[in-house]
Design goal:
single chain; five-stranded antiparallel β-sheet; 4 helices
Length: 157
């Protein structure tokens, strides 16, 4: 397998996508945050000390997706068409965060989708850490992607 972010000498490089065709692309990723059941209930009741946890996490995920190329060294800045971040309570003690991104460009949006889900989960942690420092973020993964030279991918499929 060829590692595209390394040149022939093994030095890091940003891949040249100049000759690639623009195609419609989509990526969906997730993160799951586990917490005390009382913490999830406080989020759902709106009684956490810092306010509306899900709204803040959703906005953080969207903002993070738009800034992924500033965080991941070899990641191209992309003209993102849409970002959707969903937070789904999984009682008694978990929240599943799913991000879905779309763009028409020469490279995919997998890193943006993973960044959006991860930062949204980190925001849930930040907003609830005063009441539950034992929260755990797991299951950060690409679920699905469409488009590009490598074709479609579905986890487990």
């Amino acid at each position: 397998m060829e590692l595209t972010h390394l040149d022939e000498t093994g030095a890091a490089r940003m891949v040249d996508v100049g000759d690639k065709q623009m195609t419609r692309r989509m990526a969906q990723a997730q993160a799951v945050i586990t917490m005390q059941p009382e913490t999830l209930q406080a989020i759902l009741d709106g009684s956490t000390p810092k306010g509306d946890v899900f709204s803040c996490a959703r906005i953080a995920g969207i903002m993070a997706a738009k800034r992924t190329s500033e965080l991941i060294p070899m990641c191209h800045p992309l003209p993102i068409d849409s970002v959707k971040v969903e937070l789904t309570p999984l009682p008694p003690d978990r929240v599943r965060i799913t991000s879905t991104l779309r763009c028409t460009y020469k490279t995919g949006v997998e890193m943006e989708a993973l960044t959006a889900a991860s930062v949204a989960a980190l925001t849930v942690y930040d907003m609830c850490k005063a009441v539950d420092r034992g929260m755990r973020i797991d299951e950060v993964m690409l679920l699905h992607k469409e488009g590009g030279k490598s074709g479609d991918y579905t986890r487990g499929g």
